[in-house]
């Protein structure tokens, strides 16, 4: 009887489609394969007149700012990646700093090849919803050129009629500032988890090795 009941179940596909968007780009550090070219590029930038440098960085900022929320910070981060190639005792203007950082920056379309492997779970925040609705979070695998993968997320609401209503996505995709081998204080994290009501058996477990208080 149970087997017959299962046989009557049908899967109905929804019209929702999540398609890749090649305009969603991140910035990445761009270095030439021949490292000896780095100081030459820097020297050419520093040899530009102030007028030419200002005009060039203005054009770059117009071109990049619409796709990145804080492009100035990104240029500064990439400048720091090549600081060892700067002339000794070099005093750079703000325009030169931004321009050097820009020359070692490239864009990468994270969804240019594919967007697939969706996985969906209930959102931890189910407040302010109509009866019978469920807020969800969806993760997907995004693949760009060279088959470099990233995890991207979508959110939305599944209403009582089983209709998926996706939230609008951000116009910007950014990469984080990495801090390698960081040391964190446990107590502030523990207090925040307590405030959120997110304490469980795992978060309450104390580490077996000494931690800073």
Briefly say what this structure is.
By secondary structure, the protein is of the alpha+beta class.
Helix content: 25-40%
Number of domains: 3
Shape: extended
Q: Average pLDDT, to the nearest integer?
A: 90
Low-confidence stretches: none
How many β-strands, per DSSP? Answer: 6
Distance between the termini: 61 Å
Rg, rounded, reads 25 Å
Q: What is the chain-wise order of helices and strands?
A: HEHHHHEEEEEH
Number of helices: 6
How would you classify the helix and strand content by structural class? Answer: alpha+beta
Major sheet size, sense and barrel closure: 4 strands, antiparallel
Give the strand content. 15-25%
Strand order of the largest sheet: 3-4-5-6
Structure explained in plain terms:
The chain has 213 residues and is of the alpha+beta class. It folds into three domains: 31-103, no CATH class; 114-182, no CATH class; 183-213, no CATH class. The protein has six helices and six strands; from the N terminus they run αβααααβββββα. It has helices at 2-7, 37-46, 50-65, 71-81, 94-103, 186-196, and strands spanning 25-29, 105-109, 114-122, 134-143, 149-158, 164-166. Helix 4 (71-81) packs across helix 5 (94-103). It is extended and about 75 Å long. The chain starts with a helix and ends in a 17-residue tail after the last helix.
């Amino acid at each position: 009887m149970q087997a017959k009941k299962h046989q009557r179940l049908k899967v109905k596909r929804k019209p929702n489609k999540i398609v890749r968007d090649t305009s969603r780009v991140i910035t990445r550090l761009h270095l030439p394969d021949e490292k000896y070219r780095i100081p030459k590029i820097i020297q050419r930038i520093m040899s530009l007149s102030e007028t030419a440098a200002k005009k060039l960085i203005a054009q770059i900022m117009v071109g990049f700012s619409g796709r990145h929320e804080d492009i100035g910070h990104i240029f500064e981060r990439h400048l720091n990646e090549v600081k060892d190639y700067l002339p000794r005792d070099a005093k750079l203007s703000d325009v030169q700093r931004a321009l050097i950082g820009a020359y070692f920056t490239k864009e990468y379309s994270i969804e240019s090849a594919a967007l697939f492997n969706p996985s969906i779970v209930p959102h931890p925040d189910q407040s302010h919803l109509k009866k019978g609705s469920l807020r969800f979070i969806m993760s997907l695998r995004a693949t760009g050129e060279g088959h470099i993968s990233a995890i991207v997320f979508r959110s939305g609401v599944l209403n009582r009629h089983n209709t998926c209503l996706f939230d609008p996505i951000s116009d910007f995709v950014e990469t984080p500032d990495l801090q390698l081998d960081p040391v964190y204080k446990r107590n502030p994290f523990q207090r925040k988890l307590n405030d959120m009501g997110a304490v469980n058996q795992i978060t309450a477990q104390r580490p077996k090795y000494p931690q800073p208080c």
